[in-house]
Description:
- The structure holds 2 protein chains of 2 kinds.
- Chain A has strands at about 1-10, 15-25, 25-30, 40, 55-60, 60-65, 70, 90, 90-95, 95-105.
- By secondary structure, chain A is mostly beta strands.
- The termini of chain B are far apart.
- Chain B is of the alpha/beta class.
- Chain B has 5 domains: about 5-110 and about 240-300, FAD/NAD(P)-binding domain (3-Layer(bba) Sandwich), CATH 3.50.50; about 115-235, FAD/NAD(P)-binding domain, CATH 3.50.50; about 490-545, no CATH class; about 550-625 and about 785-814, Alpha-Beta Complex (Sulfite Reductase Hemoprotein, domain 2), CATH 3.90.480; about 650-785, 2-Layer Sandwich (Sulfite Reductase Hemoprotein, domain 1), CATH 3.30.413.
- Helix content of chain B is about 30%, strand content about 20%.
- The chains are: A mainly beta, B alpha/beta.
- Strand 2 (about 15-25) of chain A pairs parallel with strand 41 of chain B, so a sheet runs across the interface.
Amino acid sequence: MSDWIEIGTIDAIPRRGSRCVNTPAGKIAVFRTQEDQVFAIENRCPHKHGPLSEGIVHGASVTCPLHNWVFDLTTGQALGADEGQVKTYPIDLVDGRIFMAFTADLVAAE
Amino acid sequence: MAERLVIIGNGMAPGRMLEHLFEAAPGQFDVTIFNAEPRVNYNRLMLSPVLSGEKTYEDIITHGDDWYAANNVTLHKSSPVTLIDREARRVVSTNGIVADYDKLVIATGSSPFIPPVPGHQLPGVVTYRDLDDVDKMLAAGPGCKVVVIGGGLLGLEAAAGLKMQGMDVTVLHLMPTLMERQLDPAAGYLLERAFKDRGISVITKANTKQVLGTDRVEGVELNDGTIIDCSMVVMAVGIRPASGLAKAAGLAVNRGIVVDDQLRTDDPHVFALGECAEHRGTCYGLVAPLYEMGEVLAKTLAGQPSAYQGSVTSTKLKVTGIDLFSAGDFGEAEDREEVVLRDASAGVYKRLVLKDDRIIGAVLYGETSDGPWYFDLLKRGVDTREMRDTLIFGQAYQGGAALDPMAAVAALPDEAEICGCNGVCKGKITGAITGKGLNTLDGVRAHTKASASCGSCTHLVEQLLHVTLGDAYNPAAVQPMCPCTEYGHDDVRRLIIAKGLKSIPAVMQELEWKTSCGCAKCRPALNYYLVSDWPGEYEDDGQSRFINERVHANIQKDGTYSVVPRMWGGMTNPKELRAIADVADKFAIPAVKVTGGQRIDLLGVKKEDLPLVWADLNAAGMVSGAAYAKGLRTVKTCVGSDWCRFGTQDSTGLGIRLEKFMWGSWTPAKVKLAVSGCPRNCAEATCKDIGVICVDSGYDIHFAGAAGLDIKGTELLCHADTEDEALEIIVALTQLYREQGRYLERIYKWAKRVGTPSILANVVTDKEKRRHYYERFVYSQTFAQIDPWEERVNGKDAHEFAAMAEFGMPVAAE
């Protein structure tokens, strides 16, 4: 069961940049690519828990600021020689407004 | 006994002729060369890259001294010939050398034509024909105001080269459009615009009245009264065959020395070759015909039948970043048709002139890759009726072939000319690749000469290597910057300047990046190169900076940040310390540490608190210490003559002065300085990027130390007598490093790569050069010395320090 909740507009995130959405279950990093695609992933690198939202965004990938692991934003899969996976969250973009599918675990405070 | 062959002149034409001769008739001749210049044979086509600084003299030598020795050639350098005695078959040089000949080749080339306007003999008027001219022009140095008279091939290459050397250049051209002999007015206009975009002034229809000045050049006056101030005038109006010697010897001379199809003059023992020769009424000034003559003459001398039939020529302008090709005849006439393609936004102009369905002229601007194909169709007189509709789009559009440059090259017929300079066709190159087992560009150059002259066909030759060898061809001689490009750091830096690239998308577009927006390796590097090369013009791209430089603090393993305010020269006071203590209390900062760079680190600051922490530190007069930056970090000092009983100079004062002068500057990697007040060296200056050891007589400046991954003591750069001099040297050294360093390359690695002698030459021995580096640093600082903390306290990049949205927390409490 999930609800689509508006988290802000695309203009709030710089191109090739990211911002966080804070939830009780942790931070979710929302990325905007050069081509204005928007992706959301868990803001926590599986390697040493680096904040992926602070990484350099290139194409549809981000490089972790701590030890340069690279993740595919579309799948959450680590690229190159590293093995790992971050959770991804569905995003819907309507007229520049960003909606994210919140599952029960993200608003689990109830 | 071998015949005696004497050659007057040591340019490219006789050089090529001899190569053919030694191949066709080894040992047949005893060769003696008289060269007016004091050097071996070099590639004159490459003078422009030497002038612009893209190559050095050593890079363009064709035959080194060993070549002459190996071929038993006697080379008399600095020995212009003054007399040819045809009866005695003997030549005499100015320095008294006498040589008898059985066969004589005159290859005296051409001399620049200097219009005899008043003032043309003043010091400061130079021509552009040989390496001495290049040296004279370079001696003027950056900032010099130069007028180039002549907007032809030579003048424009000179202008572009001088501009790249930082000079202020104006081109005067008599005709209404540039290069009117090779280009039609439309292409001439595009070319003029391209030059103006590079900051080169172009005045057409400019008739020079006189060169002004009393003791040396001070300006140029035009017929319409316009006066242009300058301290150097480059005459590039044209060339004339150097035929005076032949004329004095009684040989038949019109414009040039008259020769027949065997290059023989009217004396059967005397031949003429190259720019000084006139064949069927034509004198040539381009290299391809000269090489063709050389081949014919070699065969003639070797006793083989051969005839020179004249040449059709094509032209390319060798200015990096301007693509231009022209060939044949492009005048308008009734029996001619033309096909024109214009793409204004892309700056592309193509025009083909056809007669009886055959191409007789081609002008390409902006996109010249089809030049060789059109030139081939032109020379072979191919009937183009079948492809008329798509001819202008180029070879890739013929016969539905894929739009793949590789396919286009693969589709070229074997007789298509690839290298115009050396007249090398495709079949010869592919034949040499397979026949001689070549797998490198240098190999092809050595065996076929293709791409060995002006180099503009290099990519075609590389594609031929690719097509012929497939995956076995590996061109990666330089380490590419990252997988997004084939270019290494040095090429990227060079091309950013040469092509005037001022944004990351422009670099990626022009240098054909393989990814849409780079990667975490190349983007920060490109951002630095652009910041460093275009101060005030390039807009810093925060999203291409590592997080620390984006938020001006150091990320820690738990995602918090550390904050280090500047303490100038390591000095602080109670007010600053109190502010630091208050900030630590107010924001519950968990750790406070003294750093190795003589300042205080506040560790564990939450990202959203950063602007508030900075606001309080700013209020106490402190600015960012840039402890996160690939830039100036700290200047460590000892207490020097202020307090220490051994101190020889005010080391603290100099340290503070250096730090206040240099803070805010971005560099390829971090830069740490130190100043010690005496050789006891308490500030540990001899393991820093740049260190100063004060002594009684002044300041010893050290550099290239390391105390990190590598441990390395510094090298002594030089001694400075005064504090001002020390500052200027240190600043110039830093600027040189900023301009030459590869991203993330520390000073000691850069110094090892470029060599201490070149660093000394730029910032120590040549005071004028030092001053220019110093001034460029000062200029760049006017845009760099803005406290990033204060900017962010005032709202810049606010999105960085706040979450986009919060969910669950307050709601859950209900």
